[in-house]
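In practice, a research group might receive sequence data for several interacting partners and want a quick structural hypothesis before committing to experiments. The following worked case mirrors that situation: the sequences arrive first, and a predicted assembly follows.
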Amino acid sequence: MSEHLEASIARLRDRLERAGRDPASVTVIAVTKGFDVDVVKDALSVGLFDLGENYAQDMRAKVDALGPAERAQARWHFIGRLQTNKVRLIAADVALWQSVDRSSVAREIAKHAPGAAVLVQVNTSDEPQKGGCAPADVSRLVGECRELGLSVSGLMCVGPADAPSAARTAFRLLGSLADDLGLRERSMGMSDDLEIALGEGSTMVRVGTALFGSRPAPPGARR
Ligand SMILES: *Cc1c(COP(=O)(O)O)cnc(C)c1O
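A structural hypothesis for the assembly, expressed as tokens:
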């Protein structure tokens, strides 16, 4: 597995470089959703310490299945739809809450993880089924997070799956919102659209299948 993973990492670094970016300027979040804890252990063993999860219970189970040294290495990024009643379950273990998209979630995080680092997720492609606040609400939500004592370092979005040109438009919007607010981090780009996101100034790509292969089961389908 590790050999396979190392080859995938080499390919990914290649893609970052070909997109004109120094791999050191881009944080790769290894998205382990849908995979079991052995994949998390493999990722840590090859130096992928930034890990992304979408479901609080799954993340809890994986954290609990790690040994103490692995737990200390892992930096967990929560990237899924956040339910307020699940925040507490993982509050002590999340390094960066990437999917804050409404006040109720921000309040719950501030309550259980005071001063936590967050990104505000924006629905930059105006897709009703997608998480994220409306672009017009970003400034207000960033302000609310700060009033709650949270540390807002940037914005996050999930690109539209259809045309590359739509992805570019969505990523460009996230970049200009982040510029307007003076926010450094732009978490955008996944396995299929990371070149486009990097071209638009992404600082964090969230990569699952390009590192680990196709997911065994659709995340969430198991419950
Ligand atoms: C699943 C997921 C990813 C990773 O997607 P891949 O296509 O496997 O790279 C990134 N970000 C979010 C929010 C996701 O849900």
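Before designing any experiment, note the following. The beta strands are 27-31, 50-53, 75-78, 94-100, 117-121, 151-156, 185-187, 204-207. The CA atoms of residues 56 and 86 lie 6 Å apart.
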